[in-house]
Amino acid sequence: MSTKIYVGNLPYSVTHSILESNFAEFGSVSSAKVMMDRETGRSKGFGFVEMASAEFAEAAIKGLHGMSVDGRSINVNLARPREEGRGPGGAGTDGFKASNRADVGYGNGGFGGGRY
């Protein structure tokens, strides 16, 4: 079973192939993808790597987390599963809400909804 790894704080110069080659030192890489902005085509500064086994993933995390790449300290950890029910722009299944707190919003205690 493959294990997905999140890689954050990547320099914009890092490509899919560079990401894959860096992780290949720790074991078999199933896939490596740098997330790109649709409009500009530029890297978003993070990506995902899928390793062939949990042992390879753990070795890569231990070996690469905090490593300096082009002057940036990269974050490497297990990817969390995607949250269900999230729509574009942060809207959940119940639509857009500024907050789930009852005391936040207009008309709830002064300007900006703070407690006064």
From TrEMBL:
Residues 106-116 have a biased composition (Gly residues). Gene3D superfamilies: 3.30.70.330. Residues 3-81 form the RRM domain. The keyword RNA-binding applies. Residues 78-116 are annotated as: Disordered. SMART domains: RRM. InterPro entries: Nucleotide-bd_a/b_plait_sf, RBD_domain_sf, RRM2_NsCP33-like, RRM_dom, SLIRP/GR-RBP-like. GO terms for molecular function: RNA binding. Keywords: RNA-binding. This is RNA-binding protein.
